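Sorry, any thoughts here?
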Amino acid sequence: MKSTKLILILLGFWFIMVPTSEVQAQESASIQATATVIAGIVITGEHDLLFGTVLPGVDKTVDKGDVGFAGAWHINGDNSAEITLDFTLPDSLIHQDSVAYMRIDFTNTDASYDDGTGGGQTVPVATINPNGPETLVLGPAGQMDVWIGGTVRPDLTQTGGSYAAEVTLTVAYTGN
């Protein structure tokens, strides 16, 4: 028992005498991780691209500025946000019975847009190329109108009847 007491006293003395590492004061701070989700893009087709009556062998063009004939879309999104416009363009219109086709062409100047700072369809902000993606900025009110024209090229032996094909405009935020 005496030796146990002696061992305990020596251990206690050793803990007091042996240097220990210093305990330093610790501090911390927190921050918040935040994000704001902007409004989604809403795009509506406002007007079909209308060529009207077409004669066999005679090309017919509709200009992007032809009110009531040019194709039109309206875009709503976040104010002044950068977007991409990407057209999916047909190379032909298809006859109502799906056996005949009529070629359609879109040149690099067949589309235009107005972000609210121009004069509308007849005096748009700028001409754009419908054959490649375009990067633009929505207007200060978060809106944009886009118009498209094109040219149909019927053959001399073009089958009579109605022809149609979809022209699609895809709009996305760039993140910039």
Q: What stands out?
A: Helices lie at 2-17. The radius of gyration is 35 Å.
